[in-house]
């Protein structure tokens, strides 16, 4: 079994991602592993030039994403002082793979909503693509079911 030296935690800041982060914090402490929090945002691309976000709008999207990540990393560093944050723009599953390579991650810890059926088919799954394509282990943490689901 290979050592866990660096944990990558992709986040969209939703509940499943937060649960995964909490799990990754525990692992980081137990193994003395570095921890990187990754947020991937995407700027919508439209086939019509008149509908594409302006440079100012794109800058505002990036700035808001960076601020949200900075806040999350500041909170994270209260428990893992050496934690790092990475912001990427693009397809989430592709950017997770690239960041895992760039940071030499030995484990990816991801939250999942656990969607099934039509909802899964319509929304796709970043977690599923990451599981299928990752060259390193991926640990998934499932969100707690809500009453009535």
Description of the structure:
There is one protein chain. With 149 residues, the chain is of the alpha/beta class. It has one domain: 3-Layer(aba) Sandwich (Rossmann fold), CATH 3.40.50. The protein is 44% helix and 21% strand. Helix 3 (92-102) packs across helix 5 (126-133). The N and C termini lie far apart (37 Å). 23% of the residues are buried. The model is unreliable at 118-123 (pLDDT under 50).
Q: Gyration radius, to the nearest Å? A: 16 Å
Kindly report the name of the CATH homologous superfamily. HUPs
Q: Determine the strand fraction and express it as a percent band.
A: 15-25%
Provide mean pLDDT, rounded. 88
- How would you sum up the major sheet? 5 strands, parallel
Unreliable stretches: 118-123
Q: Strand tally, please?
A: 5
Assign the structural class, choosing from mainly alpha, mainly beta, alpha/beta, alpha+beta, or little secondary structure.
alpha/beta
The main sheet orders its strands as: 3-2-1-4-5
CATH second-level architecture: 3-Layer(aba) Sandwich
Named CATH topology: Rossmann fold
In which range does the helix fraction lie?
40-55%
The 3D shape can be described as globular
Measured distance between first and last alpha carbons: 37 Å
Number of domain modules: 1
Tally of helical runs:
5
CATH class: Alpha Beta
Map the helices and strands.
Blueprint: E1 6-11, H1 15-31, E2 34-41, H2 55-76, E3 84-89, H3 92-102, E4 107-112, H4 117-123, H5 126-133, E5 138-142
Parallel strand pairs: 1-2, 1-4, 2-3, 4-5
Helix pairs in contact: 3-5
